[in-house]
Amino acid sequence: MSFRFLFAMAAAKLSRAVIRLFGRDGSCTPGIIAIRLCPDFLRHLKMPDKVICITGTNGKTTTSNLVAGIVRDLGYTVTNNSLGSNVQGGVATALLADSTLTGKPKKQVAVLEVDERSSLLVYKYITPDFLVCNNIMRDSLKRNAHTDFIAYILGSALSEKTHVILNADDFICSSLFPKCLSRTYFGISADRPDSDRISSRDIVYCPDCGTRLHAEYVRFDHIGRIYCPGCLKKSPEPDYCVTEIDASRDVFKIRHGGEEREYKLVNSNIVNLYNFCGAVAVLTEAGFDPDKVCAAFNAQKIVKSRYDFIEAGKLSITTQLAKGQNPVACARAFSYIASLPKKNKCVLVMTDDKHDNTNNSESVCWIYDTDFSALRDDSISEIIFAGKRCRDQRLRAVIAGVDPRKIRINDDLFEGAKMIDTDKYSDIYVLHDPYILSETGMIKNYLIERGKANED
Amino acid sequence: MKIEILFSEVCNQFGDPQNAEYLKQSCPSDTFVYTALDEEPCFASSRPDMVIMGSMSESIQRKVILKLLPLKKRIEDLIDDGVVFLMTGNAADVFCRKIDYVTEKITVDAVGLFDIDVKTDWFKRVNSKVIGDADGNTVTGFRSQFAEYSGDNSEFCFLKVERGFGFRPGHMYEGMRKKNFIATQLLGPILPLNPDFCKYLIDIAGGNGSPAHYELAKEAFDKRVAEFRDPSTEF
Ligand SMILES: [Zn+2]
Q: Among the listed ranges A47-61, A265-279, B98-112, which one has the minimum average pLDDT value?
């Protein structure tokens, strides 16, 4: 053990203690300090008995929170970076916080969410026992460029010893890590869609032989059952498969190895079902008892900052995360709201990047990469775009065919929220970027007050 | 007007397809032809009024170069004939002299309409914005790219830069232009982002359409121009 490592550990732990004194638990500064003082800091840390990493474009946080919550409920101690950040410094902060001064782990299991772009820096030093990859989709074009780039970054970093748990229904994701021989796939066979048209913008031709790909069916983008008529490559069969989704009873079923178990459906958004199935798959593969996993799963909740539903007086308020600069996440959030069986919905969209609009002018290219067509749905009566880029969002929506008479705009988030006519609308949906949680909380409270006032 | 959109099933990154969509809504009576990468471009055998192509991944870019290299002479003839080409993002790279893919350790000869070389490094991403002048039109736009250009485009640039930069910080000439052939590193939604420039492009192609949702587009454009010209806005 090098002096450099011990010094870095001591300095990082001291900085963590000071930061915690100021009540800032989520900071990744200790990890950054450790890595600055000892660049291969992560290499020297002894890992817990089981290391589970979770990556992929969408659903990392939901899956990682779920896996960590279940493992804790099963009675194990867990190191997890859900409160902090998923880049190298955040991973280091979580691990060092739960290590002794000499780098020995104090917890039994590590559940780490890892940003795809940090893969090279994390997997260079850490070999996870299990890695879940939910999907590879378009993400921030500024940081993540395109899916080829992300697949390259992920593929060049991971050890072939890791057992990979991959989304069978994502043709890009399921082909990742060809050198990893321990492979488990998860997918959904329930509610098979009618469409067999590949709407993907990211995988149209076979990566192996160049033939145009076909599909048995497509759920959205390149998520579905895809095959190549040229070389016969096809989506792998899922080892863990969602076979039934019963929204009326709020349950779904996963089949694995001839057994089928019923789980509570906390959220019927199809992207979340993939997250749920991936979580069950990795926990079972990691050796946890499937019946106990099922029971613990049913006791979990989705973190309220990602999705919340409140009834206040006659108002029903739904807040849903819609990550700005992420075209697939926003398009899925729009579709999810359009699909809900309600009428006369009012949607407040707040997806600007706070940082990029401070003394700056955010790149709006991602807005044009996002499919706004779900907002045309008849069940949506009014859309309010709030934030500095509201004019760009309005134009994009109108180009996508949304009736401009349905749209109002405001440069300010709170003024935008005040434009919601709570006498006219009882179903209100607030879509928000992850970096405006405090603003979203205030707007939620304002709407709750309005709901209660209307009741009186 | 006949407008050909090249390889939209793969050249569709970063919002670029919305150029074609906006043109379609601006010129509803015109003909739009979508050519896939596994088909022969229409322009090879007939004269379109405009050809557009958007950003792509690097592996697709190499396939596009293979597809277009044999058509170099035809493209030059169409340029001489005044056909409008709008190549956005890294579709512009395709028409440079060569591309060095640093990360993948591959170098390829590109179509070679311009004496400009490109270096593409997956570990150097550049994001920035530009405001400049194209033939009397104020144009705003955004770039997000791995490419670094070398060569002198001062005599054949697309935009004279007002704020932001061209090939590299401090360089004030953006993109490349030969008659009505425009290759710009600015990303695709350049037409809905700049409705007056869209009108200019339709006019030089001989069309009679006018920018769709003009009032809404102009309001967003004016706001962006004001932000870009505000000295407190970081570039
Ligand atoms: Zn094939």
A: A265-279
Judged by CB atoms closer than 8 Å, whether chains meet at B125 and A367 is answered as no
Q: Does the CB of A14 have a partner CB in chain B at under 8 Å?
A: no
Question: Would you state the pLDDT for residue B76?
Answer: 98
ipTM for the predicted complex comes to 0.96
Contacts of B59 in chain A (CB under 8 A): 148
- Residue A84 scores a pLDDT above 80: no
A404-430 mean pLDDT: 96
Q: What is the pLDDT of residues A114-127, one digit of tens each?
A: 999 999 999 999 99
Measured between CB atoms, does B57 come within 8 Å of chain A?
yes
Q: Domain tally for chain B?
A: 1
Which residues in chain A have their CB less than 8 angstroms from residue B212's CB? 399
In this prediction, residue A221 carries a pLDDT of: 87
> Are the beta carbons of A364 and B21 separated by less than 8 Å?
no
Nearest-CB residue to A366 (from B9, B15, B234): B15
Q: Which CATH number is A3-184+267-297 given?
A: 3.40.1190.10
A257 CA from centroid of ligand 1 (Å): 29
Ligand 1 centroid to residue A148 C-alpha, Å: 17
Residue A455 has pLDDT above 90, yes or no: no
**SS3 letters for chain B?**
CEEEEECCCCCCHHHCHHHHHHHHHHCCCCEEEEECCCCCCHHHCCCCCEEEECCCCHHHHHHHHHHHHHHHHHHHHHHHCCCEEEEEHHHCHHHCCEEEECCCCEEEECCCCCCCEEEECCCCCEEEEEEEEECCEEEEEEEEECEEEECCCCCCCCEEEEECCCCCCCCCEECEEECCEEEECCCCCHHHHCHHHHHHHHHHCCCCCCCCCHHHHHHHHHHHHHHHHCCCCCC
A295 interface with B at CB cutoff 8 Å? no
For A273-308, the pLDDT digits (tens) are 999 999 999 999 999 999 999 999 999 977 666 788
Residue of B nearest to A358 (CA): B233
Among 3.40.50.2000, 3.90.190.20, 1.10.8.60, 3.30.70.120, name the CATH number for the domain at A307-455: 3.90.190.20
